[in-house]
Amino acid sequence: MATDSSSLRIGVVGFGHLGQYLVERIHKDGPALGLTLGFVWNRNSGKLSGLVPSELILGDLSSFAERRCDVIVEVCHPQIVKEFGLQFLSQSHFMVGSPSALADPDLNQKLSQAAQKYGRTLYVPSGALWGGQDIQRLNDSGKIKALFIRMSKHPSCFRLTGDVLTDWTEGEGRRVLFRGSVAKLCPLAPNNVNTMAAAAVAAGTLGFTGVQGEIVSDTALRDYHVVEVEVTGPDGFSVHTVRRNPAKLGAVTGSATYSSFWNSLLICKGHGGRVYLC
Length: 278
Fold this sequence. Notes:
The protein has 278 residues and is an alpha/beta fold. 31% of the residues lie in helices and 25% in strands.
């Protein structure tokens, strides 16, 4: 595939709904924006057949470096971040689509150190988080006191470990599934709370342990997810936002999050050896 020397080569790891969306946008809009597709990988490579040109399909993820990408985007599962994150950062900038993986303090530290060592940027997309940059600015000024996030969805939209929601019924209404630190919540719902993980990155002084989260199952929410954020600062300062993100039944990711990811990808042009909320 011929590319302009100024183009950024993007590797996409994962081909679920979000991965498919990003690949389609890169094909459609990427050339005009200086983006080209370097490779696409999926755990089940058969899913790519007929949808991705054969020369762009990466069969073995461990050979990603051969494709010489400028940015690698993970949009599949936190386990990939754990297994390949350090390797990705040694070769390219890395956008973590599953930032719930960063709730592991050892992994978080190692990825941050790798970004500094190699002069790469570890990008964390805002996703469904509204006002993430404002939270980050308040944190960086040393004034953030507390951060609480509540995510409410139809029970069919949750992908939880264990049997927390196996007994739900269509007419049950609202049920609080968990309330506590985001550090404890991420392992329970690794595919559902990436918005909370992004907030914990933005509020770095509070971190995953200090940021508090709540997930709520609500059978009335058939058409959208609700994300509520409460930020507390000094001298009585507070902000409370409520975001309704349209979503189909059973969808882990709300529809507005797709364009948010795309906008985040457009920012991934190198910010110099750091973790960057985009």
